[in-house]
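Q: Can I see a sequence and its folded structure?
A: Here is a first one.
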Amino acid sequence: MSKTIAINAGSSSLKWQLYQMPEEKVLAQGIIERIGLKDSISTVKFDGNKEEEISDIPNHTEAVKILLNDLIHFNIISSYDEITGVGHRIVAGGEYFKESVLVNDQVVEQVEELSALAPLHNPGAVAGIRAFRNLLPDITSVCVFDTSFHTTMEKHTYLYPIPQKYYTDYKIRKYGAHGTSHKYVAQEAAKMLNRPLEELKLITAHIGNGVSITANRYGKSVDTSMGFTPLAGPMMGTRSGDIDPAIIPYIIANDPEMKDAADVVNMLNKKSGLGGVSGISSDMRDIEAGLEAGNQDAILAYEIFVDRIKKFIGQYFAVLNGADALVFTAGMGENAPLMRQDVIAGLSWFGIEIDPEKNVFGYRGDISTPDSKVKVLVISTDEELCIARDVERLRHKN
């Protein structure tokens, strides 16, 4: 019996989940927010309890110390010796990492080098890795990469139509993201359909604050909507998704608030999407409230959002030459039945039909009608469990 911690570290946050393995039982979970800022918040949930503490947490090392101290303080574990492994979610693995790997000095350096591909995520992940290595140096430490699942894409799919020197010299290509989620829900879809994954063609739609769509043929990613960075693809909560690249120099030339490309990219990442168009919120619940109130900006934001998701799903029907099932997952994918209904309504030509009695908030499973030519599934993603499984696999391999 072992205990494994799955870690998802951002620039100012650290989410975690502690599992008892191999039973895959969640013992506790929590999040530490506002790291490096005043009034940091540490929240721990266990056995139906929720504990919250506000203090100043200057860096990720101190955050990890608090996490570990809480495990002892709340009697979740009696000794650090019970912790046998830690798995770190890494957004960008570039071309270095085709699968999850045991952490060593070279791996840490490479993850740090790849920060340019995920500047909001990789630096925080490196800080988390170093903190655990300092405090628990003898446990199995593993990096699990969002990009590794997409390394099965073929060259004609992942290359951009620009001079090839930008790939050979600068490694500019499509990398994708959310791979751990897409891999997990594809496996769960195969179980739900009672068919081997190796026989299925699936379109998996991870629709949260970040949005990515993946074409999965026989268990492998053959195309995905996120690109060189997680900014590409459909419209998202605060990200624009795909735009004409010529817009960037045009904005710099005409908007005095935008000094350079970095300013524009920051706007496209943090001030666009549902939040930018609506002027209300990046949260679909607030957008839906705006729809009910007749707010025209909320209506427009919602219509663009549905339009872009529908288009990516449509093109992946072409990539796969048909699909057995479409899977919705993540925050909005799992909890926004109106959005699912309106996306599917625009795909009726493919013979997709959903049952309105099943397409409701809280329902998980097959929401399509018996006559639907393509099954529509709602599956809760579990990236943390995938991370814990990889830690266990590599711990026994080591």
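Q: Show me another, different protein.
A: A second, unrelated one:
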Amino acid sequence: MKNEEVMAKGLVERIGLAEGVLTHKWKDQKKVINQPIPDHNVAVQLVLNILTDKDCGVITSMDAIDAVGHRVVHGGEKFACSTLITDEVMQALDECVDMAPLHNPPNIIGIKACQAIMPNVVQVGVFDTAFHQTMPAKAFMYGVPYEFYKEDGIRRYGFHGTSHRYVAGEVARVMGVPVEKLRIINCHLGNGSSLAAIKYGKSVDTTMGFTPLPGVLMGTRCGDIDPAIVLHEMERRGLSAKEMDTIMNKKSGVLGISGVSSDFRDLGEAAANGNERAKLALDMFHYQVQKAIGALAAAMEGVDVITFTAGVGENGIEDRAGICRGLAYLGAKLDEKRNDVRGKNALISTDDSTVKLYVIPTNEEIMIARDTRDIVSQTK
């Protein structure tokens, strides 16, 4: 961790299916293993086996592992920072399952798998919601009966917090300005998208809410809609709550509008070939991001820098251009030549732009590693 070198990275896919896949990368090499991976315990054991493998491993033994950091999507109001995982923490994560049914259960399974295989190794939870716990009540409360909040925890939590926190610190470093002196709007744009207003280093508002569903149009998520639409369509089409949830989370967004794909690269190609629905989906996405930027600028009484990150934010040259064409009123001017960049830190605004525009690739893994290191240091 002294030089934050990435020793190895990898991915385990198709857990529980007939043929699982483990991809392991180290140095300039890659190894792919195809075999049945029945559960997460087996998956974690495979990861540990390959990390200590004599030919492609990067550590000599399990003794080299001091701690494991886990990304956890929903920590509710209980966690405003990363924390050592205890039995009490696990119980709190279980209580948050209803608020993140697609994300928290796999997070919990991963933690339990590591605990089973490495019972004496410290486990740390890093929460997507934690960074947004600095939002004031006027930003996180909804206009529903107050007991919904007190009894059921109904409020805006926000997500992608680990990414928003990293990008805010990184753009401040690149600019050579303390983050405590900057008003930043970070646009985390990918298959899931959220924007955050980060005022002097703290989140004061964000577009996602009680769940990761609201905000701007996303790959397959609907984003903000009139809530009465849900009741109307459930009654008209005879849909159950689960069916409606699936429609909003997996069949809406740019996929639902275009009928083509949830991948913005596919949409760009289809729009270029004259597909009007694909063009409409992109226009809607760009417009909604523009509106969100305006709202978040108002929340901070101005903005100094707008950053673009995640899959679309880092690589979508045309998407950034489409968004920034509507931001001149803020004093944000895009330099078309500088914008011709993908996947690296870059200033993309003109020299006379009063609001700076940057591409900043996110690095949630390094934030998890740093937080884990810090917490382990405190426990020794």
